[in-house]
# Entry
Amino acid sequence: MTDKLPETLDPPTHRLGMLRFAGPGMIVAGSIVGSGELIATTKTGAEAGFLLLWLILLGCVVKVFAQVEFGRYALSSGKTTLDALSEVPGPRIVGRGNWLVWFWFAMWFASIGQLGGIVGGVGQSLAISVPLTSQGTLYNEAEDARISQRLMRVRSIENAQEGAETAHEAAQAEALSAEYAEQYGATQVGNEAKLNPPPDAKIWAAIVAIITCGLLVVGRYRMIQSLSITLVTGFTLLTIYNLFKLQAQPDWSVKSTEFLSGLRFSLPPKSADVSPLVTALATFGIIGVGAAELIVYPYWCLEKGYGRFTGPREDTPQWHARAKGWMKVLRLDAWGSMIVYTFSTMVFYLLGAATLHRADLNPSKDHMVRTLAAMFHPVFGNWASILFLFGAFAVLYSTYFVANASHARTFSDAIRVMGFIRSDEATQRRWVRGLSGLFPMLCLVLYLLYPNPVHLVLLSGLMQGLMLPMLGGAALYFRYRRSIVGLEPGLLWDHCLWLSVFAMYVTGIWTVYSNLFE
# Structure
């Protein structure tokens, strides 16, 4: 699983050398941008407008301090995250882990559901691009017309011709929907008839899951890192360009007053059908470095070699020098990836607020990917769907691929920590390989049983939000009970870490309150 490099290695001393050994953070960013930014963040923007931008940015930045503490302990001890969590005081079953490890299992199951939502999104992207049935083709035409008609409502009506075009779009959308409903049926939801979806997305999701199984079984660190960086970078650049060009269109541009209003503390109102705050809290748990990423980040650091290069702990000047040097690399990796995903998160949120919120479009169920594609229509017109679907496939599949690889590693480690399998490396390798083939299919099954990608993603966000306070407490435990003399951070870092943990506790408490009492 690891690259073939020396057992111990002196750390690089200049920035370019450090960048050569960066990578774990970008792998994590590859999983963040898909479900967090593309789905959860844009949905929050669609529901709340610009008002919760402050919460989205806070969610990205504040958790990186805890992330580095988890990485610091992994580097200095060589222990995996679940090994480390099992050391935290609290209820435990002897030889079977403690309360944190067992709660991780509950969060893990929800995150598998999240990946079910992701593979569903990939299936939707492919079904829109390459429908497999005649039903799928007609469904695409009807839904495209509906989305186009919604977007035209937002445009400024300057003359009668534009008004006539809008009326024509509405009539065309209604005719196509009626034709589809007559052939394949529709379900009445409130005052609106929802067309019964075709099977194309599920078929494509199954194909993608099977291919992913094969790729992960033979995969290695370098392939995972390269694929993740390539896919995420391409779509992020396209999205930034889209937001930039949107500023040239008065009906869709982000006004400075709107942007500044999003940086002030304020909460959006709750409507009968939508609770933007609940969506935002679920988003807070999943964007940036969520609970799942906090746990998996040290695994990628160890697989990259940071712990191995540092070597087993020794009370020698040479070991301390190596540990300090590799900690600099780890911090550069964590902060560099934070800049990438924070900026991309802001872009996705602003796009959701500027387009979907104004057009009264909310991503959900089988309409998720198609609705998200509407963000590209004002700039790219008829090319919007093609460009977005390529990007959505790239980013969502990157998340699906990376997260399944991560789950195979964390789950095999969890059952080792709880004493269900042997601790030798050969056993670990076999389990990682086997689970890499199993988990993509498990995600597919969950999607087929509950084909609502947005709900699956947000459920995982809620579970991660609940676990954030626990991980915040663990980060403080590692800092004050497991720090090595000479490797402790400074006073300013400690203050920021406490702020990070405080934000995690507020999120967890607020998440419970919002879901139980509102």
The mean pLDDT is 84. Strands lie at 186-189, 192-195.
